[in-house]
């Protein structure tokens, strides 16, 4: 593997792409550390320390996770990639509902470019709304456990400047992601997400060490790292697991040529939905806490504050079943078995032992449902690891080796390594995966 890294850096074109990606990531992390205008950093640090020990510590954990801690610093990149992720998910769901978007999806590269343009517009709108919401809550003291004094002044012009700065930061993040995709290594937005999550790992590990004094803390840290590596191995094993449905294409005449007769397969992954169901479930469970945040004195707000803790059993059980439900829902809308069956029939393909048409469609649905059952249980179990860790070792909600963070770290890392591997193989190198 070390020789493969050396081979990657010996290739001029690939070396240039790697250094370009690292340069963009450096700019990205720098922007995540620069505070927005009108932010009182000294008071903000005090409020963050106070909020992390309160009941509302996990309210913004998802957004703060995807911003690499930039949200709690109210930096110019405070929103991170979350508006883009939300916009992409919304457009993907609307593609199934709106015929116009479905037609664009089938148009190939031109249609995909149009959908990407719509995603950018929606990202801008969401970023404007989210930044306005966070600035308003920081102004009223509701952002961090009723802690006031975060802003130097509450006049309208500085507040508007903060909103525009955070919104512009989101636009810059989109641009940086597209630069990495075009001129760097890997998928740009995925690499940025990977960087922001990886940036929170040292703080998460150190908080586990500080939970126990002396040698006990170091021993606990070593145990957590060992368990984390085992979890990574398990995720790697399942993420690469797939059911290969064989497909046979009959020979046919095209003009004067006899084509076809080949054998291929349809790869159906065990975790066909990726990390999307975890994000869906977290967004749904975020709504009651958000409502209670605006009405803390109401009966519902008091009940949520006492019983709906992100590290409690009720939240964990609801998250477990929501993830399973969203797995089946997302697989149903993302994999169109009818379209796959029609395309196979159109080009003379069939599954051995299965008739073309409706029987093929029913067979694909049957296989997909059988795969989604263990895949959804695996995804829900991984998502519950932070809750179990909190109960076992009193780690905070940003426990690094579990939930959304570890799934994204492993998935993006695996995808990036495969992309580098494919480029090395084009130049007759052995690459990473031997």
Automatic annotation (TrEMBL):
One Pfam family from the record: SecY
Record-level GO cellular component terms: plasma membrane
Chief location category: membrane
Alphabetical UniProt keywords: Cell membrane, Membrane, Protein transport, Translocation, Transmembrane, Transmembrane helix, Transport
Membrane topology: Multi-pass membrane protein
Compartments it resides in: Cell membrane; Membrane
GO biological process, one term: protein targeting
Membrane spanning residue stretches: 70-97, 118-136, 156-176, 188-206, 218-238, 275-294, 314-335, 371-393, 399-417
Function: The central subunit of the protein translocation channel SecYEG. Consists of two halves formed by TMs 1-5 and 6-10. These two domains form a lateral gate at the front which open onto the bilayer between TMs 2 and 7, and are clamped together by SecE at the back. The channel is closed by both a pore ring composed of hydrophobic SecY resides and a short helix (helix 2A) on the extracellular side of the membrane which forms a plug. The plug probably moves laterally to allow the channel to open. The ring and the pore may move independently.
Family per record: Belongs to the SecY/SEC61-alpha family.
Name listed for the protein in its UniProt record: Protein translocase subunit SecY
Origin organism lineage: Bacteria, Bacillati, Actinomycetota, Actinomycetes, Propionibacteriales
């Amino acid at each position: 593997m070390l020789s493969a890294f050396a081979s990657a850096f010996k290739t001029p074109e690939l070396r240039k792409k790697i250094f370009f990606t690292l340069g963009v990531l450096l700019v990205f992390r720098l922007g995540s550390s620069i505070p927005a205008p009108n932010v009182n950093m000294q008071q903000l640090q005090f409020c963050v320390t106070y909020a992390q020990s309160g009941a509302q510590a996990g309210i913004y954990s998802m957004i703060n996770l995807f911003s690499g801690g930039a949200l709690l610093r109210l930096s110019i990149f405070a929103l991170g990639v979350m508006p883009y992720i939300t916009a992409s998910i919304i457009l993907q769901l609307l593609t199934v509902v709106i015929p116009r978007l479905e037609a664009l999806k089938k148009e190939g590269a031109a249609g995909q470019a149009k959908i990407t343009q719509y995603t950018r517009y929606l990202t801008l709108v969401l970023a404007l709304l989210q930044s306005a919401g966070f600035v308003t809550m920081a102004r009223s003291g509701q952002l961090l456990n009723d802690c006031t004094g975060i802003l130097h002044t509450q006049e309208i012009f500085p507040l508007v400047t903060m909103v525009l700065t955070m919104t512009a930061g989101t636009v810059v993040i989109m641009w940086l992601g597209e630069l990495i995709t075009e001129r760097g290594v890997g998928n740009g937005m995925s690499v940025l997400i990977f960087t922001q999550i990886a940036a929170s790992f040292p703080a998460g590990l150190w908080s586990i060490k500080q939970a126990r004094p002396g040698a006990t803390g170091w021993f606990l840290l070593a145990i957590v790292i060992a368990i984390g590596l085992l979890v990574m191995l398990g995720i790697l094993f399942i993420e690469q697991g797939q059911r290969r449905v064989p497909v046979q294409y009959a020979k046919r005449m095209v003009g004067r040529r006899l084509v076809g007769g080949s054998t291929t397969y349809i790869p159906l992954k065990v975790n066909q939905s990726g990390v999307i169901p975890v994000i869906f479930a977290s967004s749904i469970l975020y709504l009651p806490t958000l409502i209670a945040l605006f009405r803390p004195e109401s009966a519902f707000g008091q009940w949520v504050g006492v019983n709906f803790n992100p590290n409690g059993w009720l939240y964990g059980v609801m998250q477990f079943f929501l993830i399973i439900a969203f797995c089946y829902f997302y697989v149903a809308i993302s994999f169109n078995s009818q379209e796959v069956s029609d395309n196979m029939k159109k080009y003379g393909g069939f599954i051995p032992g299965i008739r073309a048409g409706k029987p093929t469609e029913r067979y694909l649905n049957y296989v997909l449902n059988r795969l989604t059952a263990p895949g959804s249980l695996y995804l829900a179990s991984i998502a519950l690891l932070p809750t179990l860790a909190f109960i076992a070792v009193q780690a905070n909600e940003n426990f690094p080796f579990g939930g959304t963070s570890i799934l994204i770290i492993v998935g993006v890392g695996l995808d990036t390594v495969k992309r580098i591997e494919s480029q090395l193989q084009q130049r007759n190198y052995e690459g990473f995966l031997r």
